[in-house]
Write a structure and sequence with these properties.
- It is a single chain.
- The protein is of the alpha/beta class.
- The protein has 2 domains: 2-153, NAD(P)-binding Rossmann-like Domain (Rossmann fold), CATH 3.40.50; 159-288, N-(1-d-carboxylethyl)-l-norvaline Dehydrogenase, domain 2 (Orthogonal Bundle).
- Helices cover 54% and strands 11% of the residues.
- The protein contains 13 helices and 8 strands.
- The chain has helices spanning 2-11, 23-31, 40-46, 57-65, 88-100, 113-118, 130-143, 156-184, 189-196, 204-214, 224-240, 246-263, 283-288, and strands spanning 17-18, 35-36, 49-52, 79-82, 104-107, 110-111, 122-128, 144-149.
- Strands 3, 4, 5, 6, 7 and 8 form a 6-stranded mixed β-sheet that branches.
- The mean pLDDT is 96.
């Protein structure tokens, strides 16, 4: 998603530098008109608004505050937009030294996936001081179709994102279970998909992920291990305040089982593979048809 967001900034006419430890991503970024930096610090030195688009809180801390991190090089009054999915307590802890350094901080997790990022159409769940959001607004508008202002409290954006991830993970797990159940009962997978997507049992995740199963295409748009992480964050934050999440717990176990089976880097729709004895669609069968 970071590459798509950076390309969207360039497309909007905003001078953009970027860093990624993956050299292929940096090459792709330069081909889209961006400037490849040698470190997070080099990006920070040039940025009025810095998007930190990484996997988790540990990576965000390293990129922003670690050796060669961006924050130490940033000009006072610049804005850090932290986009990783994190527990609210972790985001609040991350924000403190950044705010103390005289910078603005936006808790701004994102949703939409790589395709919407490339189109500049992600959703941003932003919380932070009004002046921070105002300064970052042109950059936010360049990458997002919707920017939700969730108030000044750091952590509010991350809490909303965890609700989204709860629903997304449960819906994917439910879609996989439903398809596995139907196929095991003799339903034609394609016909089952067509019926459900025009019926009350449909969901956005069912409609989006089941085609991956029908096409036997588990190239990761969002991987199984993303939901092991994100549902783990949801479940852990609820556990800390003794709040029961029975559906989340079950979905987390399903994704964890899939990861333990070696499917962690496959598309999250691969969670359907945990069900034994189910003849899933194959590309070979599709080609023969």
């Amino acid at each position: 998603m970071g590459l798509g967001m950076a390309a969207s900034l360039v497309r909007a006419g905003i001078e953009t530098s970027g860093y990624d430890p993956n050299s292929a991503a940096l090459r792709a970024f330069t081909e889209k008109g961006g400037h490849a930096a040698a470190s997070p610090a080099e990006v920070g030195a040039e940025a009025d608004v810095l998007f930190c688009v990484v996997v988790n809180a540990a990576q965000a801390e390293a990129a922003l505050l670690g050796e060669g991190g961006a924050v130490a090089a940033m000009k006072p009054g610049s804005v850090v937009v932290q986009c990783a999915t994190c527990a609210p307590d972790n985001v609040r802890a991350l924000s403190r030294p950044i705010l103390e350094a005289g910078l603005h901080f936006i808790d701004g997790p994102i949703s939409g996936g790589a395709l919407k990022a490339a189109a500049g159409e992600i959703t941003v769940m932003a919380s932070g001081a009004p002046e921070a959001l105002a300064k970052a607004r042109p950059a936010l508008d360049a990458v997002a179709a919707r920017v939700f202002d969730l108030g000044p409290e750091i952590g509010a954006g991350s809490q909303v994102k965890l609700v989204n991830q709860l629903l997304a993970g449960v819906h994917i797990a439910a879609a996989a279970e439903a398809m596995a159940y139907g196929i095991s009962g003799g339903c034609d997978p394609k016909a089952l998909f067509e019926v459900i997507t025009t019926s009350a049992g449909n969901s956005w995740m069912f409609e989006n992920r089941v085609p991956h199963i029908l096409d036997d295409d588990y190239a990761p748009r969002s991987a199984v291990d993303i939901f092991v992480k994100d549902l783990g964050l949801v479940h852990g934050s609820a556990h800390n305040r003794k709040f029961p999440l029975p559906l989340t717990a079950q979905a987390l176990q399903m994704f964890t089982q899939a990861s333990a089976m070696g499917l962690g880097r496959e598309d999250d729709a691969a969670v359907i593979k945990i069900f034994p004895g189910v003849e899933l669609p194959t590309r070979a069968a599709k080609d023969q048809g």
